[in-house]
Amino acid sequence: MTDERVFAYMVGTAGSGKSTLTGAFREWFNLKGLDAIVVNLDPGAESLPYTPDVDIRDWVSLKKVMEEFDLGPNGAQIVCADMMALNAKDLKESIESFKTEYVLLDTPGQIELFVFREAGSFIVSYLNPQRSMVAYLLDPVLTKTASGFVTQLLLSLTTRFRLGVPVVNLFSKCDLLSKDDKRVIENWSSLDEQLYNKITMEKASVYRELSEQLMFLLQHFGESISPILVSSKDYLGMEDLYNSLQMYFKAGEDTLSD
Ligand SMILES: Nc1nc2c(ncn2[C@@H]2O[C@H](COP(=O)(O)OP(=O)(O)OP(=O)(O)O)[C@@H](O)[C@H]2O)c(=O)[nH]1
Ligand SMILES: [Mg+2]
After folding, report:
1. Residue 197 within any structural domain of the chain
2. Coil, helix or strand for 235?
């Protein structure tokens, strides 16, 4: 049986704003009279800026794993990531007990736990292989330089490659950015000569070919699509994010505009 619900995973580097966006996006759904549930997939979360409807910590606890296996936090996070996959059936049943069209999932702090380890791609394809999408958060702190910008887009592309689902790129915390910062993001997002020239200025000439090839890779795989600037503080970009989900999975049948 195909699951008609849309699963949206918030993915990004540590501190990029995943949990805050998960909570804010649900609030935005509610404000629009739409329905969504929120799932916490971070076993190490100490506190969350939302109340999860389904919480992986009910089955997997970082603290307990640290005590039981006598591990430090990093080793325990890895064990927890793998244990999450072992609890996928319970997780799925719990999500299915809710009647909703949208499932918003907050992922573990460090990106490698969800994207680089097998557990992440297993969970995504086990929960809903047809209608899953990643909202990839690019942290503005890490995209200030041209090489940082490209590196973040490459991580987003890696996420698409690993999880095998569509990815929409979001620039998070945009309320913290000046007009000029936003203009730079918009210009660089077209992956044009400006960005290339900047990279070649930042990098020694021996990296010129590498820079060219990385830019080519991003251009070729469509990473130059118009960026969505989001802020969880003032709901900037939420509508664009919702419309992206609609466009991918519901053929744009219910897109919103002001
Ligand atoms: N100004 C501003 N701050 C934000 C926004 N989103 C998140 N933050 C702040 O950024 C910090 C990290 O946010 P989180 O939502 O915890 O980020 P995360 O990616 O879930 O972090 P980890 O799970 O710990 O890796 C917190 O202090 C948030 O309050 C935003 O849109 N605007
Ligand atoms: Mg978090």
Report:
1. no
2. coil
